[in-house]
Design goal:
The complex is a heterodimer of chains A (about 350) and B (about 475).
Chain A (H helix, E strand, L loop, with lengths): L2 H17 L8 H6 L6 H10 L5 H5 L12 H16 L12 H22 L14 H29 L7 H13 L11 E2 L6 E2 L1 H30 L10 H26 L10 H23 L6 H18 L6 H17 L1
Antiparallel strand pairs in A: 1-2
Helix pairs in contact in A: 1-5, 3-5, 3-13, 6-11, 6-12, 7-12, 7-13, 8-13, 9-10, 10-11, 11-12
Chain B lengths: L11 E4 L3 H12 L4 E4 L16 E3 L15 H12 L5 H20 L4 E2 L12 E4 L3 H15 L2 E3 L2 E9 L2 E9 L2 E5 L3 E4 L8 H8 L7 E2 L8 H8 L4 E2 L5 E7 L20 E4 L13 H13 L6 E6 L14 E3 L2 H7 L4 H14 L34 E13 L2 E2 L6 E4 L2 E8 L17 H21 L1
Parallel strand pairs in B: 1-2, 1-10, 2-6, 10-20, 11-17
Antiparallel strand pairs in B: 3-5, 4-5, 7-8, 8-9, 12-18, 13-17, 14-15, 15-17, 16-17, 19-20
The chains are: A mainly alpha (about 350), B alpha/beta (about 475).
C-alpha cells in the first residue's frame, strides 16, 4: 500500500483540525476533530466515511493555488482507493482495481462469448420464455458460484477493514442509525439540506443524491426481483415467465427503469464534475463501472421487451453476460464502495454512541 | 465578460469583492440597478478578508437559527464599548447593531448557511452566528447569487484612481489585463478593504518593525483606493498608525495564513523573547480577552518574535495549531532547536518554576494559580514546566486589519470636506474605523460589512434610478 496517500491525508487533516470551518458539512469532520493526532487506521476510516460531496473543497480558504494546497476530497479518495486494494482478497487480485475498466471490458467479452456458446450448444429440450434458450439448471450452475464467490471475497475484505479500524460489537440501534444515514445519503445533504457540490463547482444541488438513490433502489429492486423469482421457483414451483402482476415483474421492471435512469444520470453528471477532486487515473474505471451497471439494467429491459420474439435468443446471453461481469468484478471495482461506506458509517456510529 | 457590460446605461460600480462589496452589489441589483463589480484578486483568491472569516455578531431577542439565548442591543453595545474603550460613533454603532438582527434573515435568503458554533468556540454560541463552511462559503454563495441576478463581475481588475470633482466621482480608472480602462458610473461603492497588505505603508505608519509582521489575510488589501480618496480630501476616521495584530505561529506564510495560524497556548506557557527573557504576564486573563494584545506585545520585542514554552502536560489543553511544535527532551535541547541561548532559557524556566505555587489548576477558568516573587508575574494557570518532552512555538505579530478609513454617515455615504459626496458610498473594512476605532469584537467586521454593504447598495441604486 502506498503510505504516501496516508501521509498526505494526514498533513491535510492536521490543517483541517486547526480550522474546523467545515464541521457542519458531513460526518467526516466531527470524527476528525475528535482526535488530535491521526493514526493510519483513523485516516483510512475517515477516508471511507467521506462521500466526496466536495462541500469542504469549495468552502476551503486553503485550496490551490494557496501554498497549503488542501484538496481533502482527492486526498481521502486516494486513501480510500488504496485501502480497498490493501484489504482486497485474495490479495493477488488487488491490482485489478488499477485496471478495472479494462478488466470489465475483457470479462464482459469473455462472458458474452461463453454465454453465446452455451446458448448455442446446450439447447434445452423444453422450457418456456428464456428457459427455452437456457435451462434453469444451467443458469444456477453458472450464476450461483459467480454470485457467491465474489460475495465471499467482498465479505473477507470488509472483515479485514473492520478489524483494521478497530471495529467492535455494534448495537442494533447503531446499525439502524448507520443504515438510515446510508439510505437517506445524509452525508450528501451538505448539513444544510441544499445538497452537495459536484456538477457545477460550488453550486449546491440535490441531483447527485437523487440519481444515486435511483441507482441504489433500482439495483435493490432488480436484486429483489431475482430473489423473488428464485423463491417462487423453489418454494412454490412457479416458473418463469411471470405475469405482470407478479413480484419479479413488479420489482424488476420499475427497478430496471430506475437503475437505467440513475446510472445514466450519474454517468452524465460525472462528465461535468471536476476530475481533480478524486483519484487521478481512475476516472475511466469508475465510468466503466457506471456504464456496466447501466448495461445490466438496459439489457434486462430490452430482454423483457423482446419477450415472445426471436430476439430473446440474442438478448438473453447479452443480458446474462452483463450480469455475470458485474458479479465477477464486484470485489475489485467501484461497487465495493457501498460495502466499505456502510462499514464506515457503522463504525462512526459506535464512535459517537 | 466585462466586454459585454452595457456602459451606455447608468450603472453602479462596486470596487472590491468581499462581503461588503457583494452585499452592496446584490442589494443594488435587486433594487433595479445595473451593477459592475471589480475585484482585484484572481478568482481563486476572491473575497478579500471575508474568505478567512467564520461568523458574524448578531443581535437577537430570542433564539435565532443556531444562535442560543438572547443578545440585546444594550449588551452588544456594552461589549463594543469595552473593546473600543469608547472610541466609536454611538449613532452608527447602534444602527449597525440594530440592523444585524434583520441581516441574519437576509443572509440566509441570499444563500448563506449557518452551523452551530464550532467545537472549541462554545463561548460564542450566543453572540455569533457561524457560517457553514466559513467565510469562503459565504463569499461563494454571494457570488452565485450576484451572478444569477445578473451582476457583472470582473476579476484581476485593479482600481487605481477615482476622479473627484465638484462633490462627485466623475470617473474611475482601473487596470484590467494590463490596460487602463476608465469607467463613468452613475454611482460608486468602495468596499476594497484596508491597507494592511502594503508592508511599506505599514512600515511608514508603525515603524520599521512592521516589516517583520505577518499578514493574516489577503495580499490584495493594499489600500490603493483608500489612499487615492484620502489624498483627494475625503474625511478620515481611525488612527492612521494603528493596526489590529494578534500573536500567531511564526512559521505562518507572509500572507493569507488565516485561522489555522492562530496559537492558543500562551495561557499555559512561559513566553520568552529572543534573549530568553519573559516579558509579560501570560495568565493575565482568559485567552479570548487577551489574544489581541499579544500581537502588540510581541511586536515590541527584539526582532518582533516570541517563543511560547510548554511541557507535555499542557500540550492538549488548547486547539491544535497548523504547525507541530518544536520538541525537545530537555529545555536545553528545545532552546538549541529554537536557536535560543540554552543557559539563558534554562535560567528563565528554573526561575519561573521556582515561583510557581501549589494549588488547583483549572484550564477553562481564572484559577488564581499564580507565581510569587518574579517579574513579570503569571497570574493564572502557572504550573512549573517540568515534564518532558518540552514544546516550543515561535510567535510573531499577525496583522488582521488596519483602522484608518473613510468617514461615512448613516447612509454609508462618504464624507468630503464640503459634506457627503453625491455619488460615493463606502462599506466594510474601508469605513469600519468609524465604529471600531480601537480593539476588536469577534465577528463585528462581518456585521459592519453586511449592514453597510446593504445600505451602500440601496443608496447607490436609488441614486442611479
Amino acid at each position: 500500500m502506498s503510505d504516501n496517500s496516508i501521509l498526505e491525508a494526514r498533513r491535510q487533516a492536521e490543517i483541517c483540525n486547526a480550522c474546523r470551518y467545515c464541521e457542519g458539512y458531513c460526518s467526516v469532520f466531527p470524527a476528525m476533530f475528535a482526535e488530535r493526532s491521526f493514526s493510519d487506521s483513523s485516516i483510512i476510516q475517515l477516508a471511507n466515511l467521506c462521500h466526496n460531496c466536495r462541500g469542504c473543497y469549495y468552502a476551503c480558504q486553503y485550496t490551490p493555488p494557496h501554498e497549503f494546497a488542501i484538496n481533502l476530497p482527492a486526498a481521502l479518495d486516494e486513501v480510500r482507493y488504496d485501502s480497498w486494494k490493501k484489504f482486497s482478497w485474495p490479495q493477488g487480485f488487488a491490482n485489478m482495481f488499477d485496471r478495472s475498466g479494462m478488466i470489465m471490458v475483457v470479462v464482459l467479452a469473455c462472458s458474452l462469448a461463453f454465454l453465446f456458446w452455451l446458448v448455442n450448444t446446450f439447447i434445452p429440450e423444453d422450457g418456456e420464455g428464456f428457459y427455452a434458450h437456457m435451462s434453469h439448471g444451467l443458469m444456477v450452475m453458472i450464476f450461483l458460484p459467480s454470485f457467491l464467490v465474489p460475495l465471499i471475497a467482498t465479505g473477507v475484505s470488509i472483515n479485514r477493514y473492520w478489524r483494521y479500524i478497530g471495529g467492535k460489537k455494534m448495537t442494533l440501534t447503531e446499525l439502524w442509525q448507520a443504515s438510515l444515514e446510508a439510505i437517506t445519503l445524509r452525508n450528501l445533504k451538505g448539513g444544510h439540506g441544499d445538497g452537495c457540490n459536484f456538477e457545477d463547482e460550488d453550486r449546491f444541488t440535490k441531483t447527485r443524491s437523487a440519481l444515486h438513490k435511483m441507482t441504489f433502489w433500482g439495483f435493490l429492486m432488480c436484486f429483489g426481483s431475482t430473489t423473488a423469482g428464485t423463491i417462487l421457483h423453489y418454494a412454490f414451483g412457479l416458473e418463469a415467465p411471470y405475469s405482470w402482476y407478479s413480484l419479479p415483474k413488479l420489482l424488476g421492471v420499475p427497478g430496471g427503469v430506475l437503475l437505467c435512469l440513475g446510472t445514466g444520470g450519474l454517468a452524465w453528471l460525472k462528465t461535468k464534475a471536476d476530475p481533480n477532486l478524486g483519484v487521478a487515473g481512475i476516472w475511466g474505471s469508475e465510468m466503466a463501472f457506471i456504464l456496466l451497471l447501466f448495461s445490466v439494467s438496459a439489457t434486462g429491459l430490452v430482454l423483457y421487451a423482446a419477450t415472445g420474439t426471436a430476439l430473446v435468443e440474442w438478448f438473453l446471453p447479452i443480458h446474462l453476460g452483463a450480469v455475470l461481469t458485474f458479479f465477477l468484478v464486484t470485489p475489485y471495482s467501484k461497487m465495493i464502495h457501498g460495502f466499505y461506506r456502510m462499514a464506515a458509517l457503522v463504525k462512526n456510529q459506535t464512535r459517537s454512541g | 465578460m466585462i466586454e459585454n457590460f452595457n456602459i451606455s446605461e447608468p450603472y453602479v460600480l462596486i470596487i472590491g469583492g468581499g462581503n461588503a462589496a457583494l452585499c452592496a452589489a446584490i442589494t443594488a441589483k435587486e433594487a433595479g440597478a445595473s451593477v459592475l463589480l471589480l475585484e482585484s484578486a484572481p478568482k481563486p483568491f476572491r473575497g478579500g478578508n471575508s474568505r478567512h472569516t467564520r461568523n458574524f455578531r448578531c443581535m437577537h431577542l430570542g433564539p435565532l437559527g443556531e444562535l442560543t439565548g438572547k443578545y440585546g442591543e444594550e449588551e452588544y453595545f456594552d461589549d463594543l464599548l469595552k473593546v473600543t474603550k469608547g472610541n466609536t460613533d454611538e449613532d452608527l454603532a447602534r444602527m449597525c447593531i440594530h440592523s444585524s438582527q434583520e441581516a441574519y434573515g437576509w443572509m440566509h435568503a441570499h444563500g448563506v448557511r449557518f452551523q452551530p458554533s464550532l467545537s472549541g468556540t462554545l463561548s460564542l454560541s450566543r453572540t455569533n452566528a457561524f457560517f457553514l463552511g466559513g467565510g469562503k462559503a459565504l463569499v461563494n454563495a454571494y457570488y452565485r447569487k450576484a451572478m444569477d441576478l445578473g451582476v457583472e463581475v470582473s476579476y484581476e481588475s485593479n482600481v487605481k484612481h477615482l476622479e473627484y470633482d465638484n462633490r462627485r466621482i466623475k470617473s474611475v480608472t482601473a487596470e484590467i489585463n494590463n490596460k487602463d480602462v476608465t469607467f463613468t458610473p452613475a454611482a460608486t461603492v468602495v468596499a476594497s478593504g484596508g491597507f494592511q497588505a502594503d508592508i511599506d505603508w505599514l512600515a511608514s505608519a508603525w515603524g520599521e518593525a512592521a516589516r517583520n509582521f505577518l499578514i493574516r489575510g489577503t495580499p490584495y488589501n493594499r489600500g490603493v483606493v483608500l489612499k487615492n480618496l484620502l489624498d483627494q480630501g475625503m474625511m478620515s476616521v481611525g488612527d492612521p498608525t494603528q493596526c489590529h495584530a494578534v500573536a500567531i505561529d511564526g512559521r505562518a506564510p507572509q500572507y493569507d495564513g488565516g485561522i489555522v495560524t492562530r496559537l492558543d497556548c500562551v495561557p499555559f506557557a512561559a513566553v520568552v523573547n529572543k534573549n530568553g527573557e519573559r516579558f509579560y504576564d501570560e495568565g493575565e486573563d482568559v485567552w479570548p480577552k487577551r489574544y489581541a494584545i499579544w500581537g502588540r506585545l510581541v511586536a515590541a520585542q527584539p526582532d518582533q518574535v516570541g517563543y511560547a514554552i510548554i511541557d507535555s502536560k499542557s500540550l492538549e489543553l488548547f486547539m491544535p495549531s497548523v504547525f507541530p511544535p518544536v520538541q525537545g527532551n530537555t529545555i536545553e535541547e528545545l532552546a538549541q532547536k529554537m536557536q535560543l541561548s540554552s543557559s539563558r532559557l534554562r535560567w528563565t524556566i528554573d526561575e519561573f518554576n521556582a515561583a510557581c505555587q501549589p494549588g488547583n489548576f483549572h484550564p477553562t477558568e481564572l484559577d488564581g494559580l499564580s507565581t510569587r516573587g518574579i517579574n513579570p508575574p503569571k497570574s493564572n494557570w502557572a504550573r512549573p514546566i517540568t515534564e518532558p518532552p518540552f514544546y516550543g512555538y515561535e510567535l510573531r505579530p499577525g496583522v488582521t486589519f488596519t483602522y484608518l478609513g473613510l468617514k461615512v454617515d448613516k447612509q454609508a455615504r462618504v464624507q468630503g470636506k464640503e459634506g457627503p459626496v453625491e455619488n460615493l458610498w463606502a462599506a466594510g473594512e474601508i469605513m469600519a474605523g468609524s465604529i471600531l476605532g480601537e480593539g476588536y469584537l469577534a465577528g463585528f467586521g462581518m456585521t459592519i460589512g453586511t449592514v453597510f454593504g446593504r445600505l451602500a447598495g440601496q443608496g447607490a441604486a436609488e441614486h442611479v434610478r
